[in-house]
Design goal:
The complex is a heterodimer of chains A (313) and B (337).
Chain A lengths: L1 E4 L7 H18 L19 H6 L1 H17 L2 E12 L3 E7 L7 E2 L2 E2 H15 L4 E7 L3 E8 L2 H10 L11 H11 L8 E7 L10 H10 L2 E8 L11 H10 L3 E5 L2 H15 L2 E11 L1 H20 L7
Parallel strand pairs in A: 3-6, 3-8, 8-9, 9-10
Antiparallel strand pairs in A: 1-2, 2-11, 4-5, 6-7
Helix pairs in contact in A: 1-3, 3-10, 4-5, 4-9, 6-7, 7-8
Chain B lengths: L4 E4 L10 H24 L10 H23 L1 E9 L1 E7 L13 H16 L3 E7 L3 E8 L2 H9 L13 H11 L2 H5 L4 E7 L10 H6 L2 E8 L5 E2 L1 E3 L5 E4 L1 E2 L2 E2 L1 E2 L3 H10 L3 E5 L5 H10 L5 E9 L5 H16 L14
Parallel strand pairs in B: 3-4, 3-6, 6-7, 7-14
Antiparallel strand pairs in B: 1-2, 2-15, 4-5, 8-13, 9-10, 11-12
The chains are: A alpha/beta (313), B alpha/beta (337).
């Protein structure tokens, strides 16, 4: 615990107030009210009473009480440094393949239903991160810009439907648009998490070109080959996915079943979660305590000056 | 906007204010006792005391005022006002006729411009966005992250533009459904901002539903009475041709009367926007006049950071009191000749 002042400049008032009160007292003694009295001879030799001696304490009480109020003006605080660990604010774009192949059945549901549930769960676990939502098939659309309103994005994910966009699978275009969504992001950590179940076949921007752009903009690409066999004419080009991910410092994940898909998103969340240690000051204000002490001393001064230590005229 | 409020961190301290009348009474007793003591000491000469009754009373009053200010400062006053939030749904017409360029650069571009400005003005409200043409689509749910709505507008409409045609009722229905159930149920007035060229607005059969839900339509008409030809574009943005009908090229005009009738029927207002009028500010001003959906916090104009004002006032009064004179001007003795 240490003592600090919220407005240390105001401490300049303390000596000013002390001097002002003492000067006022000195001036008052010089120019105090009096009574014309013919002779002081009658009271010469009378020793000063205890009350008269105690009256000298009244200016002292007034000075100390106003000095306390002046110190309170400087907002004294008892402070304690607290060390906190929190999640750094990274920006993530969730990029989903909503080509018609995502309507295919897998594990008793459509691939998109499985993906949608996992992504909604993933968004629900985000903390300090902002997220955006991009979907692609043969064309790309930004469904959600970067936002901290994860609930709104979850609603947008639920509203996605395979077939909403023109047919095809344009992975390169999806990556390029996702990176563009992050172009104004002030976040230190930026990443795109792209999920697809197939081969890129209708790109205007080649996936490797999109990865180069991402690398230039410090955006990591995480790619997920989901719920589909690797290789083959319809399968996922795992070599390309790995290349574009590793070029940007990201990683390719293969998620053949719903449980692995869930674990994959959780792993990406962990990879992107940067823990930052920060120090915050916890302070207890003392201004009102000092002001209350000043008030108490003032009250004592007034009580004494109007009762046992009262004077005339 | 509800009124501001004052609260105290230590309201018990205000009880000390009750002691001030007692202190005033004590001053009265003290004053009488002092006069008696003077008379006892000075006899008839006590009338020649140089202490001023007037200044003594002023000093005592100042002391009481200083103590009162100090007590209020110790009680920790906080003066502020509630931060309110309103739910606002924006309904944007994205039908083909909105591509018409009878306003610069086009109706749709102006519509996005007016919405972006209204959203920026609305700040901490919760805003949702619905697009409509032949059908309606949710573009973004109600969100307190209003800059996100501005970004949504930047990212364009395709593929959120539904099937061709213009169905105002489909748009209004989707917009109403965007209000949370608890907000719809409370019956309080709610704001719906409709930005359109008015096509089909005059035929809306959804007005009674809007009225029963307490939804006021603030309609902004985009376009001109003379209108213009409706351009058709390819998916990649290339201009193809102008829309034609049986009688040749189709001309789309602003149906201000239809939009105005729709807005007025719900208790709302209508504006025409061509890019230069202060319509965005007037729309947001109307929305701010609507009752809030919820109170989400407090904003203080006087709190711990600014309490020094009261302490400074108390200190100033008490210092002034210390410096005030107590002497009165004494009569000048006559000089014997």
């Amino acid at each position: 615990m240490s003592l600090r002042f919220g407005a240390p400049d105001a401490l300049v008032f303390v000596p000013i107030v002390v001097l002002a009160v003492l000067a006022a007292e000195w001036w008052r003694r010089r120019a105090a009210g009096g009574l014309l009295f013919p002779s002081l001879g009658l009271i010469v030799g009378i020793a000063p009473s205890w009350r008269l001696r105690l009256r000298a304490a009244l200016p002292l009480l007034r000075t100390v009480s106003l000095a306390l109020v002046a110190v309170a003006l400087a907002r004294p605080e008892l402070t304690e440094t607290l060390i906190e660990t929190r999640t750094a604010g990274s920006d993530l774009v969730i990029t989903l393949d909503i080509s018609t192949s995502m309507q295919e059945q897998a594990f008793g549901r459509t691939k998109f239903e499985i993906t949608s549930d996992v992504v909604v769960d993933f968004l629900g676990k985000l903390d300090g991160e902002r997220a955006g939502l991009v979907a692609f098939a043969g064309e790309v659309a930004v469904y959600g810009p970067m936002t901290s309103d994860h609930a709104a994005l979850r609603k947008m994910v639920v509203g996605l439907k395979p077939g909403q966009l023109r047919g095809g699978t344009a992975i390169g275009d999806g990556l390029a648009v996702s990176v563009n969504v992050l172009r104004d992001s002030p976040a230190v950590s930026k990443a795109v998490v792209l999920l697809t179940d197939g081969l890129s076949n209708s790109d205007q921007v080649k996936p490797m070109d999109a990865a180069q752009i991402a690398r230039l903009l410090n955006v990591r690409l995480y790619t997920i080959g989901a719920l589909a066999p690797a290789g083959g004419q319809q399968g996922i080009d795992e070599r390309l996915m790995t290349q574009i991910s590793e070029l940007t410092g990201g990683r390719y994940f293969r998620a053949a079943d719903p449980a692995t898909l869930q674990a994959t998103y959780d792993a990406i969340a962990q990879l992107e979660r940067t823990l930052v240690t920060s120090e915050t000051l916890h302070s207890v204000p003392l201004d009102w305590t000092l002001a209350a002490a000043g008030l108490a001393l003032l009250a004592l001064e007034v009580a004494l000056a109007t009762t046992v230590l009262r004077s005339a005229p | 906007m509800t009124d501001g409020w004052v609260t105290f961190e230590r309201p018990a301290a205000l009880l000390l204010l009750a002691a001030l009348p007692l202190l005033g009474a004590l001053y009265g007793v003290f004053f009488i006792a002092r006069r008696r003591a003077l008379r006892a000491f000075g006899g008839p000469g006590s009338g020649l005391v140089s202490g001023s009754v007037f200044w003594q009373i002023i000093r005592n009053l100042l002391r009481l005022a200083g103590l009162a200010a100090l007590i209020v400062a110790i009680a920790g006053p906080r003066l502020g006002h509630p931060v309110e939030r309103r739910d606002v749904v924006v309904l944007l017409d994205v039908s083909q006729s909105m591509a018409t360029q009878d306003v610069t650069p086009s109706r749709l571009a102006l519509a996005r411009d007016v919405i972006a400005r209204v959203v920026a003005d609305l700040g901490e409200q919760r805003i949702g966005l619905v697009y409509y043409a032949g059908d309606a689509r949710l573009r973004f749910p109600l969100t307190p992250d209003t800059p996100a709505i501005g970004k949504v507008l930047e990212f364009g409409g395709y593929p959120f533009i539904p099937i061709t045609g213009t169905s105002v009722d489909a748009g209004l229905r989707a917009a109403v459904e965007l209000f949370p159930p608890e907000v719809r149920a409370n019956g309080a007035p709610k704001s719906l901002v409709l930005v359109s060229d008015g096509e089909g607005a005059a035929d809306s059969s959804f007005i009674s539903a809007l009225r029963s839900e307490g939804i006021r339509v603030f309609a902004v008409g985009i376009g001109t009475a003379d209108g213009g030809e409706v351009p058709l574009y390819a998916a990649d943005g290339r201009f193809l041709r102008y829309l034609t009908g049986r009688s040749g090229t189709t001309v789309s005009t602003l149906d201000a009367a239809g939009l105005e009738a729709l807005a007025h029927a719900t208790g709302g207002r209508y504006w025409t926007y061509t890019g230069s009028e202060p319509v965005p500010q007037e729309v947001s001003a109307q929305i701010f006049q609507m009752p809030p959906t919820e109170v989400i916090g407090e904003r203080w104009v006087l709190d711990y950071e600014r309490r020094w004002l009261l302490l400074g006032l108390a200190l100033g009064i008490l210092l002034l009191e210390a410096w005030l004179p107590e002497r009165r001007r004494m009569p000048t003795p006559a000089i014997a000749r």
